[in-house]
């Protein structure tokens, strides 16, 4: 039994450790961010609220139905409800009724409010989808930053491992009197500098991991990490399309443009609804009512007075009324006219914002297009520089090993390689992200595969 319990505890401990060591892929990060972001949840509530507005607008087109009832007792002077004559007694009265009203015409405002509510729900969906797009881009950028910093840190550690070997060999040469002590000091300085680079690299990895975790709204920073992977430059033919072609396509599917356009349509609906207040309103009504009073006196079949019971009175004194009511707006302190003017201003504002959003999109696409070209050239230049630095370092190492180069010049060659490798990694991921932004504008989902 003890063995089983111990085994179970070991299995549980392994499970917990594995859970803590989970490393996130880009797709997992994007999916988690979209599903758990608080702002998205708030926008989702706005969408649900707009769907309720649609139900309200539909309900305004339907007849209403209300029931009413009152019970009262009166002592002293009152009017007998049977014969409308004054009486001085105590009376117990019950009144009940039903009423219904329906708007027959109000300048088509109810129908247009329904159309507006449906359009508002679509607009809120566009806004929600646009926020998801922004979150996907931000998460991808933060994820690539973590990967870039991790690759740089690996490079620093690998370079430090090589320097440790050089340091060990130089110590032996100095102790044997072959090399001067100055060479050892230079190698030690190089090693100390690389140790500092490693510390800074670890700090950058940690900060970038925290930034990504905050985007995902994960607070367990210590146990959060991304998958240990590196990415090559992905193949892409996006530059086969001009910036104008990418912009024209983006206008058709970008959620921010759809949202901006829907705001123009909403403003147009608001203007039409405001103008509808200038028209007469026609309302139909239907009322049913009945009553009971204990002072009611009516003649029976023989002409003798008597007081009918409660149920009989409800049937005897019930009645209905129905009809239509027309209200014609003549003067309301210019409120209708001013509402129309405000709606026109809001429409102009929405149209200007729509044009501004299209202009911003075109500017962003042009910038992204230039960035892809520029950052690719920067990456190519960094790769060429790295290749040249590596060859120079290898040549310097060969000369240093045979004593034809001093430690200071050798350390400088090694430092230039370090910087070139870090620059090559940075420019690679800068280019990958800019490439993904441009593809995203073209409608290609974010993926690093």
UniProtKB/TrEMBL annotation:
Signal peptide boundaries: 1-19
Keyword set, alphabetical order = Cell outer membrane, Membrane, Signal, Transmembrane, Transmembrane beta strand, Transport
GO cellular component terms, semicolon-separated: cell outer membrane; efflux pump complex
Cross-referenced InterPro entries: OMP_efflux (IPR003423), TolC-like (IPR051906)
Membrane-traversing stretches = none
**Record keywords: Transmembrane included?**
yes
User: Which compartments is it annotated to reside in?
Assistant: Cell outer membrane
What would you give as a GO molecular function for this chain, any one? porin activity
Main subcellular localization, coarse class? membrane
Give the similarity note: Belongs to the outer membrane factor (OMF) (TC 1.B.17) family.
Q: Which PANTHER family match?
A: OUTER MEMBRANE PROTEIN TOLC
What name does this protein carry?
TolC family protein
């Amino acid at each position: 039994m003890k063995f089983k319990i111990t085994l179970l505890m070991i299995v549980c401990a392994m499970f917990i450790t594995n859970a803590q060591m989970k490393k996130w892929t880009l797709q997992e990060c994007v999916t988690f961010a979209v599903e758990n972001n608080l702002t998205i949840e708030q926008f989702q509530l706005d969408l649900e609220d707009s769907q309720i507005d649609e139900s309200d607008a539909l309900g305004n087109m339907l007849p209403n139905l209300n029931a009413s009832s009152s019970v009262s007792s009166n002592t002293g002077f009152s009017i007998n409800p049977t014969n409308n004559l004054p009486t001085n007694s105590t009376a117990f009265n019950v009144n009940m009724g039903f009423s219904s009203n329906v708007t027959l015409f109000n300048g088509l405002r109810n129908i247009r409010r329904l159309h507006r509510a449906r359009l508002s729900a679509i607009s809120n969906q566009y806004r929600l989808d646009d926020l998801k797009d922004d979150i996907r881009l931000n998460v991808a950028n933060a994820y690539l930053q973590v990967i870039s910093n991790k690759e740089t840190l690996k490079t620093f550690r690998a370079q430090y491992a090589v320097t440790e070997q050089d340091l060990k060999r130089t110590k032996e040469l100095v102790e044997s009197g072959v090399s001067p002590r100055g060479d050892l000091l230079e190698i030690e300085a190089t090693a100390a500098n690389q140790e500092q680079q490693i510390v800074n690299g670890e700090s950058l990895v940690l900060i970038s991991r925290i930034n990504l975790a905050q985007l995902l709204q994960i607070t367990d920073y210590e146990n959060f990490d991304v998958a240990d992977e590196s990415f090559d430059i992905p193949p892409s033919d996006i530059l086969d399309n001009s910036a104008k072609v990418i912009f024209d396509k983006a206008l058709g599917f970008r959620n921010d443009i759809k949202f901006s356009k829907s705001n123009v349509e909403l403003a147009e609906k608001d203007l039409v609804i405001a103008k509808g207040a200038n028209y007469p309103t026609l309302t139909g009504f239907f009322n049913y009512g009945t009553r009971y009073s204990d002072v009611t006196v009516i003649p029976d079949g023989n002409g003798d007075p008597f007081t009918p019971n409660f149920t009989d009175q409800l049937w005897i004194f019930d009645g209905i009324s129905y009809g239509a009511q027309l209200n014609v707006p003549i003067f309301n302190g210019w409120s209708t006219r001013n509402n129309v003017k405000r709606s026109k201003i809001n429409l102009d504002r929405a149209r200007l914002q729509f044009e501004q959003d299209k202009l911003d999109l075109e500017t962003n696409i042009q910038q992204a297009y230039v960035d892809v070209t520029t950052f690719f050239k920067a990456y190519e230049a960094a790769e060429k520089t790295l290749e040249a630095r590596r060859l120079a370092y290898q040549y310097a190492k060969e000369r240093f090993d045979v004593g034809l180069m001093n430690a200071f010049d050798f350390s400088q060659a090694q430092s230039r390689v370090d910087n070139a490798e870090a620059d090559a990694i940075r420019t690679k991921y800068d280019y990958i992200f800019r490439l993904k932004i441009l593809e995203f504008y073209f409608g290609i989902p974010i993926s690093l595969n």
